[in-house]
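Could you join me in thinking about how sequence relates to backbone shape in a protein? We need material for that, and I hope you will provide a protein of your own picking. Once you have written the record down, we can walk along the chain together:

…
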Amino acid sequence: MKISVVIPYVNGPHFLEDCLESLKDQTWKDFEVLLIQDKPSKYLTEKENVNVVEEPTNIVDNYKKFFPICVYHTTNTSGVSAARNIGIEKAVGEYVYFLDSDDYLFHNTLEKLVKAVDEGQASVAYGTIVDTWFKRIVFFDSYDDDVEQVNTASEEATMNATEGDDEEDYHKKVITEQKPSEAVIDLIGKKRGLVAISALNLLIKRELLIKNEIVFDEQVLFYADMSFVARTLQLAKNAVSVADARYVKRKHNDPIHYPAITQIKTEDKFSNMLHAYENTVNAVGDHDVIAYLLAFKLINYYTNYHATKIRRSEQSYWQGERFSSMQELITKIPTEITANLSGYKNKLVKRLIKGDLSATKRVVNIHLGSKKVRKIKSNPRAFACYLYFHLFTKMKMKDNWVLFESFFGKSYSDSPKYIYEYLNQAYPNEYKCIWVINDKKTKIPYGAIKVKRFSIRYAYYFARCKYDVLNVRQPNWIRKRKGNVFLETWHGTPLKRLVFDQEEVCGASPLHKQQFYRQSRDWDYLISDNGFSTETFKRAFLFHNEIVECGYPRNDVLYAPDKEARIIKLKDQLGIPKDKKTILYAPTWRDDEYYGKGEYKFALKLDLHELKRQLGDEYVLLLRTHYYIADSIDTTGIEDFAFNVSKYNDISELYLISDLLITDYSSVFFDYANLRRPILFYTYDLEKYRDMLRGFYLDIEEDMPGPLLFTEEEVIAAIKDIANIEKKYQDKYDEFYERFCHVDDGDASKRIVERVFRNKQGV
């Protein structure tokens, strides 16, 4: 047997399946797999954490026909170190290879590593690590083969090493004059912080490990790879780099259920780091080049992370025992290292060695203060945020002030609009209302104060208003004050899987789950439109506060007694011909097609000129893209047929004037169904959207109240035959209406206002 692949496993069967699938597809076949089943970490403290072992038996059985696979269990000691040590002990391969159960390989990774050790007569071969947030099928669908190596490091590691520090360190004379090997530079010197040193994607001769008793330190959960990698490199006869042997490190976008080790928050990380550092330096010798590189990283940790804790943390141990522990370790660092420091680092280390905490605080205060000033000068938002924390949140909260925000301040619309209007009609002059609106020209009735999102006034009112009514999440930096009431109206019955019901987050913000979890803990009330949404929100949002199943306030207008008069007025306002029927096309965004956070691409898959040629005598077309979509749609030359109403504030009013809706996976059809008008689904990328990007709650091929269409020709044909389609789908439409629209009746705004603002039960 050439290779023993050692895989520690606790939970996350969806990760493990990708991992084993990548081994099945390896071009090198002479290997065994040792799956070491471990116990859940004692550090899993969130009530949502999966803290039981999710048995891998069924998955393992599926792969036994492809390669030898044995399952072992940790016993007295648990943790990844104990699991890997069992793997080393039980391995029969000439080489050992460590693979985490949440990661996967390129198809030829093992073959390239084996070829390198054979040709170079090497004890170690190592490849490239590529980071991703995505499962295997999504990653390889979009992988760019020209991508450069990514040094995997957690968010903490990034904080611990400022940009460029480590790169400068391994170029310093005190390092280069010792002529470190390429492997030492690659696997230690170039890593971003101590936590990023990793034994992954190393093919290591087992004899080297056994002969020299190289094992992982089972006394620590964090930083255990440090001493293992250092000793392996120091004792290896030869270590060769194989740049195109790629290992995919899958970062966890669900740290609530399945946190990676680097995402676990515990005070033990500090003691683990010091223990691992000291043991490693003792093992390699404090004047070895590896020890020098580690010393620079420890100094980076202290000056870039620990020092800020001395200033900002409320925990006294950063100024007490941890300060003393760092002093003890850094004092032992050879002077040829500390003599290479300059500027801020030099000042901090000198004061640390002297044990002068007061002087350290002064240096840190000046440094952080100057950084804050520079940030405020370059970013006005930073000043608003600064005032929010240091001034506005110290002011008294106003019990009758209400802040409203819809779609990040982009419009006066959606459920916040209708709650606001009912509140002012039912209780005039009782509440001072503030509307977050970026366009100050927007007309808002009842005299609301208008503020721009992220402005100083925005921060002021968010801090002082008792009530906050939003249809999307509040900014990350907002902190709920005692007495605050957050009403989250949400923005639709979900077809697409949400948050913790998604295995993957393929959008522009891979930390979506973590951010959503923290922000949604602040919501006191969450509006639901039906029983299906209520159960979905509880599960997908991990929401434990009150869900008010009152219908969507934004749908009240669809039941307004004067809606016919509103339709005439709206058509006049938008210039829509009254002698033609109106089609509303309202597509959603695609998670994997984006420019950046909150800005998504969209390519129209309909030829507007062809639609006009075939349908223009009877219809006009309204184009309404999702508020996330940044691309505009060109209607030049067909302005009398295609009306781009993407910037029109209130889509509910567009429903009123539309005789027919075309959508894809947007939740708009749940609301539009209240009108009992025909709906067509243009799902040209159904397979990708359903199977790779999001997935659906409903059986889209069975449950929809209208046909699925896949080509432009089918769309045109369906519109021409809309009367027969209505008859064909009538029963399905009725079932859909009873399931999803039965709560809406025109009084949702009243019900939620009475519940939240007047504290009435059972409304």
Notes: The radius of gyration is 30 Å. The chain has three domains: 3-152+198-262, 388-554, 556-740.
